[in-house]
Amino acid sequence: MAYSVQSKKSGETYYLHSKDVTLRGGRQQTIYFFARTEKEGAMDELPEGYAVMENSRTGLPMLKKA
User: Fold this and answer.
1) How many angstroms separate the first and last alpha carbons of the chain?
2) Where are the domains of the chain?
3) What backbone phi and psi angles, to 5 degrees, belong to 31?
4) Degrees (nearest 5) of the Cα angle 53, 64, 61?
5) Is the pLDDT of residue 1 over 90?
6) How do strand 13-22 and strand 28-35 relate by DSSP bridges?
7) Looking at the predicted structure, is the pLDDT value of residue 66 above 90?
C-alpha cells in the first residue's frame, strides 16, 4: 500500500511517488512527488529525513526536509 495523505483543503487523497532523473550535467537525482492515483514508483513510506507539509494556497502536499 502506497503512502497517502489527505488534503485538509480539498479532501483529495494523494499518493507519494519517487523517480530517478538525470539532470543536465549528467548527475542522477531522486525526485519525490504526490499524485492523485497510485502509479509506477509509488512509495510505501516517507523517505528518512523528510516531513509532509501542505501548501496553504493550493492544498497540495509537498515534502520538506525535516
Assistant:
1) 24
2) 4-65
3) -110, 150
4) 35
5) no
6) antiparallel
7) no
Count the neighbouring beta carbons within 10 Å of the beta carbon of residue 45: 8
**What is the C-alpha to C-alpha distance for residues 34 and 62, in angstroms, rounded to an integer?**
7
Contacts of 7 (CB under 8 A, 6+ apart): 13, 14, 54, 59, 60, 61
Q: Where are the alpha helices (DSSP H) in the chain?
A: none
Q: Which amino acid, residue 63?
A: L
How far is Cα 33 from Cα 25, in angstroms, rounded to an integer? 22
- Separation CA 44–CA 53 (nearest Å): 18
Summarised one tens digit per residue, pLDDT across range 22-58 is 999 999 999 999 999 999 999 999 999 999 999 999 9
> For the chain, how many residues are written?
66
pLDDT at 61: 96
